[in-house]
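Q: What residues go here?
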């Protein structure tokens, strides 16, 4: 926790704000806590970063990946182990988007962006 706290305060000007890691982790865990065999990612209504971090698990997972790159080795391993468990659940409980190949692929875009979204979540 201390290493994450230091990383958040050290990189304020680089897109990581204090408390963002906790918000992203809470979003990820609460998304996976929903009942049902399959889950569909949800897009935010307004599209701003703050809402995306709270509502879109793919954006939350992106931030957690960013935090991983900024942690020293031991905290990195601890967070990576937790994310591996959550990623496994996300992979099992969401479905791949069969049309993802039609969307432009952004450099560095990870697999969690290519899962099915609830098509009515943005309405």
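A:
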């Amino acid at each position: 926790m201390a290493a994450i706290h230091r990383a958040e305060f050290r990189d304020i000007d680089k897109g990581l704000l204090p408390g963002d890691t906790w918000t992203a982790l809470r979003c990820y865990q609460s998304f996976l806590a929903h009942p049902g065999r399959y889950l569909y990612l949800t897009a935010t209504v307004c599209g701003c970063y703050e809402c995306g971090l709270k509502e879109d698990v793919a954006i939350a997972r992106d931030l957690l990946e960013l935090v991983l790159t900024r942690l020293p080795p031991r905290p990195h391993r601890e967070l990576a182990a937790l994310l591996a468990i959550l990623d496994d659940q996300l992979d099992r409980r969401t479905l791949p988007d069969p049309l993802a190949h039609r969307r432009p692929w952004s450099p560095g875009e990870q697999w969690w962006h290519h899962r099915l979204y609830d098509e009515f979540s943005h309405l």
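A: Context that may help when evaluating the design: Residues 73-93 form the longest helix (21 residues). The mean pLDDT is 87.
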